[in-house]
């Protein structure tokens, strides 16, 4: 890859190594840097990184220790569905005020924990540190330890203060540490090993966990617990008993998988259930792990049947989408890679792509599958996204809630692949739904009546 911003006027100087163009020059993209202050990064904060990982634990209380503004990132931030408890949809905050910032908020946190336990009797409470807590120095670890002993439940600190870093992936690590504390057996406890598997990085958006669970059940395999879609505290504590860990969202769960292997000897494999081809490959990988001929036979029968449904749909829309130009900007690289592959199967050319939390090896994979001249960007800001959407003459963009408005403002079709969506896009069913959505937005007649570049008149 070669650097895109070779002249100072093309982008902010500090950002020039975070934007590259695929080509003969193999310059390495900068992707571990903290977000640039003042650039209004599309990347979320440390607290939100922790929150999106833990929030789908359905029967736990999620208590935000900070100003009420941070609690805005609570209720329904994920499109996660539950088959039972709905506690995770409640919003709890210590609502720190100026007085608490001056004199400390520990007493208020203690009072909030006591009130929540007395009213709701949850099996566990996650206490999230926010930027203000990091600034004033409240010892949430000590408060949570004391509360756990007093109430006889797990009160777990999530050290997600934004002053730790300007990188959302640090919040993933904080969430992972909290999960390991939760599932680690207490003294004298043991968890019996089973033939079931854990599904890491699956958050049951639009019921996607249930869909994959259906496939696995048809193969003769059961899910032990998902991290953390449609999970409960009791189910998560059974996690050490799995024989295999599937890792879908690598950014949020690779570190957890490595620690589960280290502590409990549970191996892990990477999977990706976005797109028909990825789903088929992942199911075959799982079947090979079990080494059971009957499981392999069932898996191949399932794949053959489902691909027969998907193939004509893809061919139908490919005839109408061939040659269209696409852009992608999403949170994790595993999702970006899956979307690139799906769009290429639909005959589209990906000319601009990026992520919030991709790693060096992720960007190398992306660079290997896109065409020469594709712009690849890490931790973009809105100005950069708009710039490349226009320069690359994009017809359709796939991204999250923050990117939707940028695309629509520029008269560009948009497919929502965000974590708060309610429609499942995983598996074979999701591949069909995704193809239909791409076609519907890319080929909508409304774009013929929308000015492609609203800035042209102003510039003229």
Give the topology, please:
Elements: E1 2-3, E2 19-21, H1 46-54, E3 61-65, E4 92-93, H2 98-103, H3 106-120, E5 124-129, H4 131-136, H5 140-151, E6 154-158, H6 168-183, E7 197-202, H7 208-219, E8 223-228, H8 233-236, E9 244-247, H9 250-264, E10 268-270, H10 276-290, H11 293-321, E11 325-330, H12 333-345, E12 349-355, H13 360-369, E13 375-378, H14 382-391, E14 396-399, H15 401-409, E15 413-416, H16 427-442, H17 456-459
Structure explained in plain terms:
This protein is α/β, with parallel strands linked by helices and 460 residues long. The protein has three domains: 2-30 and 319-449, Rossmann fold (3-Layer(aba) Sandwich); 46-183, Nitrogenase molybdenum iron protein domain (Rossmann fold); 197-300, Nitrogenase molybdenum iron protein domain (Rossmann fold), CATH 3.40.50.1980. The chain has helices at residues 46-54, 98-103, 106-120, 131-136, 140-151, 168-183, 208-219, 233-236, 250-264, 276-290, 293-321, 333-345, 360-369, 382-391, 401-409, 427-442, 456-459; strands spanning 2-3, 19-21, 61-65, 92-93, 124-129, 154-158, 197-202, 223-228, 244-247, 268-270, 325-330, 349-355, 375-378, 396-399, 413-416. The strands form three sheets. Strands 1-2-13-12-11-14-15 form a seven-stranded mixed beta sheet, sandwiched between helices. Strands 4-3-5-6 form a four-stranded parallel beta sheet, with helices on both faces. Strands 8-7-9-10 form a four-stranded parallel beta sheet, with helices on both faces. Helix 7 links the parallel strand 7 and strand 8 (223-228). It is globular and about 65 Å long.
């Amino acid at each position: 890859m070669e650097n895109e911003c070779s002249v100072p006027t093309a982008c902010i100087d500090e950002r020039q190594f975070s934007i590259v163009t695929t080509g003969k020059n193999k310059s390495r993209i900068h992707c571990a840097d903290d977000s640039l202050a003042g650039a209004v990064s599309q990347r979320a904060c440390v607290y939100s990184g922790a929150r999106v990982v833990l929030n789908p634990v359905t029967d736990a209380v999620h208590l935000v220790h900070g100003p009420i503004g941070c609690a805005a990132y609570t209720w329904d931030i994920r499109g996660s569905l539950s088959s039972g408890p709905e506690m995770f949809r409640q919003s709890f905050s210590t609502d720190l005020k100026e007085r608490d910032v001056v004199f400390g908020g520990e007493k208020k946190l203690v009072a909030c924990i006591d009130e929540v336990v007395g009213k709701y009797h949850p099996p566990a409470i996650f206490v999230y540190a926010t930027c203000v807590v990091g600034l004033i120095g409240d010892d949430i670890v000590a408060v949570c330890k004391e509360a756990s002993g007093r109430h006889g439940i797990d009160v777990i600190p999530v050290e997600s203060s934004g002053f730790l870093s300007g990188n959302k992936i640090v919040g993933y690590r904080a969430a992972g540490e909290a999960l390991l504390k939760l599932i680690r057996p207490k003294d004298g406890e043991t968890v019996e090993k089973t033939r079931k598997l854990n599904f890491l990085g699956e958050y049951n958006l639009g019921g996607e966990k249930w869909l994959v669970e259906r496939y696995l059940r048809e193969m003769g395999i059961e899910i032990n617990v998902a991290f953390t879609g449609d999970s409960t505290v009791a189910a998560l504590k059974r996690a050490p008993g799995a024989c295999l860990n599937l890792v879908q969202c690598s950014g949020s769960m690779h570190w957890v998988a490595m620690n589960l292997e280290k502590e409990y000897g549970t191996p892990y494999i990477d999977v990706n259930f976005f797109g028909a081809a990825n789903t088929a490959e992942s199911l075959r990988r799982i079947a090979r792990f079990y080494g059971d001929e009957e499981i392999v036979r069932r898996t191949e029968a399932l794949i053959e049947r489902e691909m027969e449904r998907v193939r004509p749909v893809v061919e139908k829309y490919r005839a109408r989408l061939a040659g269209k130009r696409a852009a992608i900007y999403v949170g994790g690289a595993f999702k970006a890679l899956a979307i690139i592959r799906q769009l290429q199967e639909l005959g589209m050319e990906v000319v601009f792509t990026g992520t919030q939390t991709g790693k060096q090896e992720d960007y190398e994979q992306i660079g290997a599958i896109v065409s020469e001249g594709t712009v690849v960007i890490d931790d973009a800001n809105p100005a950069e996204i708009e710039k490349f959407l226009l320069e690359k003459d994009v017809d359709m963009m796939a991204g999250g809630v923050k990117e939707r408005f940028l695309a629509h403002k520029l008269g560009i079709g948009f497919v929502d692949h965000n974590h708060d969506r309610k429609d499942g896009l995983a598996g074979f069913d999701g591949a069909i739904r995704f193809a239909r959505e791409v076609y519907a937005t890319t080929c909508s007649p409304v774009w013929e009546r929308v000015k492609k570049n609203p800035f042209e008149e102003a510039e003229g």
